[in-house]
TrEMBL record:
Gene3D superfamilies: 3.30.450.40, 3.30.70.270, EAL domain. It comes from the Bacteria. CDD domains: EAL (cd01948). This is Sensor domain-containing phosphodiesterase. InterPro entries: Cyclic-di-GMP_PDE-like, EAL_dom, EAL_sf, GAF, GAF-like_dom_sf, GGDEF_dom, Nucleotide_cyclase, Rev_trsase/Diguanyl_cyclase. It holds the Pfam family EAL. Residues 328-583 form the EAL domain. GO terms for molecular function: cyclic-guanylate-specific phosphodiesterase activity. Transmembrane segments: none annotated.
């Protein structure tokens, strides 16, 4: 019966996840108060493990534990009662104890008891001289012990322990890293982050098995991770399907990191029968005090994402990769503000040339951004970032409004010009995009046939119902639709039969090096042109940089082209001047973009 009670007591202690954790100021404050109250040099929050007394907090003692045998705190945990030993050398039970051998003569301890009645240990004070205590002192020591238990229960019940896994959570991880920074500044650690599964695996599991899928998986993995830990290590449940462990960095860090892939494989092997998951590990080496606890987790999570992107089981944090993501995030944050300023974003215009006559018949409006601190940001960098967010709608609205305002000015001044504008895949999923595009035409009094909307091949191929409804709606309003970057998609050409587009733009990757010396590329481009013309598309070649490429395209029947051979993208006034020279008219200086 006694052994069963001890097992239950130990289980209650272990569930609190206090043993072998870092010192904590909340406990240290109480320990210091106890020592000051009694005027004694030594005080401790002592937890009674199976064979040791481990000090969660201590004053006046260097070591973190002593054997449980003949330790007065062990007796307090077993009895749940106050214990006072005026002189250990006069007590037959403790005169041969470790404490007595270290010069301790006086002991007083108040029990730390859970709500269920399990004794965890004691808040104790110790002196090197025999001593008696007053009732007032004992009452105060007992009150302080209750404060310690309240702190333990608060940490466990409110935001410190994940109720599903039973492991310390993200908040506790951050606090523990902070405590380590205080006590061991300059020491090296490695944050190891285990990510259980990909987002699509999570979605599929939830859809097929319901919410209990996550609960069972997390509980199963938490048990397995606890079993894998070395002595003194703590696992943290830092996100829904992520666990973290802090590892002390040794001399042979390379050997440790090389061991991680085998650890992931072991994890897979032991869980494969129950759940289909693809776990990966991200490792972030860091120095205590050199980086915040939040950044430690962020870096480890960045390594996890790098592992998933690269198809690896393990990835180590890369500062260079992290700087790229930081820059991307900064650009994303700044772009919305830039759209509201007059001096950051603007449109430039790249002429479209009729190959047969050499005449400028239109232009593609292209977005440019000059960041006040970073300078000119390449559209190849910032456009893919914003296209994945709600900013895509704002950006397209800004481009359309600005471009149509400029086109209106040119048209009213007698210049004959068509403008093509880029539309993202996200825009095609907007339920009100057709309506907003129509309102833009009306607002600037523009005929829809003067506007061509360019949509990438991959966006066309999404072929969702909303996408097709949007495309058909734009066509019905009179917009010309162009397939941009043709040839870079991964779908059958059969989709060309279903799309309401009338213009096809061959991607620059096929045109840039087009030369008679490369018969395979020539044959490929000729096939594209023949197929497109036979299906009723007007063809534009992008990225023409060499005269021999232009000559080949003209000979193959390509109608239009654009590229650096003819002109780089121009500011609005420069394009206007070039357009006037091309048509033999006088520049009108009506640029407004």
């Amino acid at each position: 019966m006694i052994e069963i009670d001890e097992d239950a007591r130990l289980d209650a202690l272990y569930q609190l996840n206090l043993l072998d954790t870092s010192p904590n100021e909340a406990f240290d404050r109480v320990t210091r108060m106890a020592a000051q109250l009694f005027g004694l040099p030594i005080a401790a929050v002592s937890l009674t493990d199976r064979d040791r007394q481990w000090f969660k907090s201590r004053v006046g003692v260097e070591h973190t534990s002593i054997p449980r045998e003949k330790a007065p705190c062990g007796a307090v945990a077993e009895s749940n009662e106050l214990l006072v030993v005026p002189d250990l050398l006069d007590d037959p039970c403790y005169r041969n104890s470790v404490l007595a051998s270290q010069g301790v003569r006086f002991y007083a301890g108040a029990p730390l008891v859970t709500r269920e009645g399990f004794g965890l240990g004691a808040l104790c004070v110790l002196g090197t001289e025999p001593r008696t205590v007053t009732e007032h002192e004992l009452a105060a020591l007992n009150d302080l012990a209750q404060i310690v238990m309240s702190q333990i229960e608060l940490q466990h019940a409110f935001g410190r322990i994940d109720p599903l896994s039973g492991l310390p959570n993200r908040t506790q991880f951050l606090d523990d890293v902070g405590d380590l920074e205080r006590d061991h500044p300059g020491e090296d650690r490695i944050a190891v982050l285990l990510d259980l599964l990909r987002a699509d695996e999570l979605d599929q599991g939830m859809r097929v098995m319901g919410p209990s899928y996550i609960d069972e998986m997390v509980q199963d993995r938490a048990r397995l991770i606890r079993a894998m830990l070395d002595d003194g290590q703590t696992a943290y449940h830092v996100a829904a399907t992520q666990f973290a462990v802090l590892v002390r960095r040794g001399v042979d860090n390379a050997a440790f990191l090389a061991h991680l892939p085998a650890l992931v494989e072991r994890f897979k092997e032991q869980t494969r029968k129950q759940f289909v998951v693809t776990p990966v590990v991200g490792a972030a080496p860091f120095t205590l005090g050199a980086i915040s606890a939040v950044d430690v987790l962020r870096c480890a999570n960045g390594a996890v994402q790098d592992a998933r992107t690269a198809g690896l089981s393990v990835s180590v944090y890369s500062a260079s990769s992290d700087s790229v993501y930081k820059r991307s995030f900064a650009l994303l944050n700044d772009f919305s503000y830039a759209l509201r300023q007059e001096d950051q974003v603007r449109l430039v215009f790249q002429p479209r040339i009729e190959l047969g006559s050499g005449r400028i018949i239109g232009a593609e409006a292209l977005l440019r951004w000059r960041h006040p601190q970073m300078g000119d940001i390449s559209p190849a960098e910032f456009i893919p970032i914003i296209e994945k967010t709600a900013l895509a709608k704002q950006a397209t609205a800004w481009v359309m409004d600005t471009a149509l305002r400029q086109l209106g000015a040119w048209t009213r001044s007698g210049l004959d010009c068509r403008l093509s504008l880029n539309v993202s895949a996200a825009n095609l999923e907007e339920s009100d995009f057709v309506e907003s595009a129509g309102h833009a035409l009306q607002r600037h009094d523009i005929a829809p046939e003067l506007v061509e909307l360019e949509i990438t091949e991959s966006a066309f191929m999404a072929n969702t119902r909303q996408t097709m409804d949007t495309l058909n709606g734009l066509r019905d309003q009179g917009f010309a639709l162009a397939i941009d970057d043709f040839g870079t998609g991964y779908s059958s050409l059969a989709y060309l039969q279903r799309l309401p587009a009338t213009v096809l733009k061959i991607d620059r990757s096929f045109i840039r090096d087009l030369s008679p010396k490369d018969p395979k590329t020539v044959a490929l481009v000729r096939s594209m042109l023949t197929l497109s013309r036979d299906m009723g598309y007007r063809v534009v070649a992008e990225g023409v940089e060499q005269q021999e490429a232009a000559d080949l395209l003209l000979a193959m029947g390509c109608e239009e082209a654009q590229g650096y051979l003819f002109s780089r993208p121009l500011e609005a006034w420069d394009f206007e001047e070039l357009l006037c020279r091309s048509t033999g008219t006088k520049p009108l200086l009506t640029a407004v973009a």
